[in-house]
Amino acid sequence: MGMRPGQRERRQERLRESGHGRRWPKRLALALLTLVLVVVAYVIGLYFWGDSRLRHTDAFDTYADQPSADPGADWLLIGSDSRSELTPEQRKKLHVGNNEVFNTDTIMVLHYGDSGPYLVSIPRDSYVAIPGHGKNKINAAYALGGPKLLTRTVEQATGLKLDHYAEVNFLGFVDVVDSLGGVTICVAKGGLHDEKSGADFDAGCQPMDGTQALAYVRARYSDPLGDLGRVRRQRQLVSAVADKAMSAAVVVPPWRLIPWLGASFDALTVDDGTGVRDLAQMGWRMKELAGGEGATTTVPVGEETTVDGVGDVVEWDSVKAEQLFSALRDDTTIPASDLK
Q1: What was the pLDDT predicted at 130?
Q2: Which of 112, 143, 263, 331 could form a disulfide with 71 if both were Cys (CB 3.0 to 4.6 A apart)?
Q3: Preceding amide of 117 cis, omega within 30
């Protein structure tokens, strides 16, 4: 039986539409696959690009009485006060002086595992044994023997077996903060005004660029808590940087992510065994700290005194300090009495 007029045309049209409809899932799948491949290539490219820009140093040594490895991961994070890469104009702008010292302005231990994350500040004037050099301020270890002597000094003082080392200097720190477009810091009641560091901040939450942030964390002469007040501000700023750096507003857009990554990779020096993946994990743990997980604290101190030939030093509270580091070594919760 033949088709009526127009039926053949309508049937062919339906077949064409049906075939066209069947092609849409294939096209969508192809588009999704292409997108996935682009994202994967982008991530892999960033990984190798970042890894190629990282500077490495031989930061760890093996010695007879070295502590045993403990659960979790332990990072030594330091801020070097080297002026060697700064021009006279930069030194003046950053209020860092012209002396060619090469100590550590900031010393922190980051621990994470089943407990934590915990960020522990070690006061730079801590009076500890420096292997081969007697007792001195802990920040002198870097000047006396570089990263290897500093990591060994920290390991023997704390009983922790360090896994990673990361160092940033003055200029690198400023560049990292500026690459984020600055950070917001809440200044305590009374404000912070320190002519030597260049800090001039009234109380309240306010944006800071890299130069201002450096002045904020280096101030100590106008702080009634001295170096102990400074280490608290250092942890505050580290948390603020991590919180903004790991936010979607920075991580997602390439035009925000790549400048920040470039500044960070250029600013950092890490141990030979640390790579981009380790840094990403460390950054995420810092983000957790900024979000209220874990805790930040300072090594419990006993008294401040003066030692001939050394100057003003800080003695640790041996009992409370051992409780703190024992908890880190065992990857257990830090005693509440040690959190401050």
Answers
A1: 96
A2: 331
A3: yes
By three-state DSSP, how is residue 214 classified? helix
201 or 81: whose pLDDT is higher?
A: 201
User: How distant is the alpha carbon of residue 140 from its chain centre?
Assistant: 22
pTM recorded for the entire structure? 0.82
- Quick one: average pLDDT of 98-119? 81
SS3 316: strand
9 class by beta-carbon count within 10 Å (0-12 exposed, 13-18 middle, 19+ buried): exposed
What the block records as the tokens of 303 is 């008294």
Residue 261: strand, helix, or coil:
helix
The torsion angles phi and psi of 40, rounded to 5 degrees, stand at -60, -45
DSSP 265-304: HHHEEEETT--HHHHHHHHHHHHHHHTT-SEEEE--EEEE
Q: How many Å apart are CA 127 and CA 135, to the nearest integer?
A: 7
pLDDT, tens digit (0-9, with 9 covering 90-100), for 169-217:
877 888 899 999 999 999 988 889 888 788 889 999 999 999 899 889 8
DSSP-assigned letter for residue 220: -
What is the DSSP secondary structure assignment for residue 337, as one 8-state letter? G
∠ Cα 300 158 170 (to 5°)? 80
Cα 16 to Cα 37: distance, rounded to the nearest angstrom: 32
Alpha-carbon span 242 to 311, nearest angstrom: 34
Distance CA 121, CA 338 (A): 12
Beta-carbon count within 10 A of 280 CB: 13
**CA–CA distance, 194 with 197 (Å, rounded to integer):** 6
Q: Is 185 helix (H, G, I), strand (E, B) or coil?
A: strand
